[in-house]
Amino acid sequence: MVFKWPSEWRDADAMSYFISDFASTAVRPSRKLNFWSSLICAVCQYRKTPFVSISELKRCLAWRGVAPQCLEGVLDEMQNKRTVLKLDKLTETWSQWGLGVLASPLTSVWRRIIPDTSEQKFVVISVLEECRSKVINSVHHNDNILFTIQEWNDLVLTFVHPSNLENVNKYLVFRRDLTVYGDPVSLVKVRASNEKVASTISQVDIAIGKAKVTRDALYSQIKQLSGKVNELLTAAGRLKTRTRLCLISVVRRCMRDH
Q: Each residue of 55-111: pLDDT tens digit?
């Protein structure tokens, strides 16, 4: 689906006003603020990126190659209204809440997918909550609340850009939508539809998780073997064709000789 830009995007006069900086930091026109704040939310929603940096926004929101000069001011106002937060402010809350549970193999798995960058990130709250809602609703729709880490990441990446995977997972843990377990098998357990918070991972869950990992390993081996069998069948088909052509050639030569 192609992103739908606002009608003002095609109006050069309107955009020359919108991309200009604020004349004063004391007075910021609501028209310009509303235009950019709505567009930031829409673009982040379209790109599945609730966590975004200023440089990323400048690239996404550049009009005819020109980035909006008022972007920092717009983000300041959005922070004042709590529609946007700096990521480090949110991570401070995570640390205070005691998110030590993520100091586990799961965190390292998330970071191996897309490493963190040093640039300051902002959190678009409405987009983050929408991602959260979509992920949890998908789990409840399929009636399966226990996942291996690979199964879970595959599910979350349906709704979230890979660069946002780790922080979205941390947020879901922070909101107590899921619990994680890293030894001896990495598991994610999501709160059931009738639960307010996710329950702890039990020994039964761990046994099921081990069975899932074993099953997935067997499926992978079967897939590899199936691929090799197909390669052998293809090679045999080619050999059969070459043999048939050689026999035809020999027969024709013998017929010509006689």
A: 999 999 999 999 999 999 999 999 999 999 998 887 776 655 444 444 444 555 445
Q: Which of the 8 DSSP states describes residue 185? A: S
Tokens 């619990």, residue located: 179
Rounded CA separation 239/190 (Å): 53
State the DSSP string of 30-71: HHHHHHHHHHHHHHHHHHT-SEEEHHHHHHHT-BTTB--TTH
In which order are the strands placed within the sheet that holds 84-86?
A: 51-53, 121-124, 84-86
* Residues 135, 159 contacting (CB under 8 angstroms): yes
Is residue 160 within 8 A of residue 199, CB to CB? The reply is no
Using alpha carbons, select from 2, 64, 9, 65 the residue that is nearest to residue 38: 9
Contact 98, 57 (CB under 8 A): no
Contact 73, 27 (CB under 8 A): no
Q: What is the pLDDT of residue 70?
A: 94
Q: What angle do CA 242, 248, 252 make, to 5 degrees?
A: 145
The region that residue 39 occupies, defined by phi over 0 for left and psi between -120 and 50 for alpha, beta otherwise, is: alpha
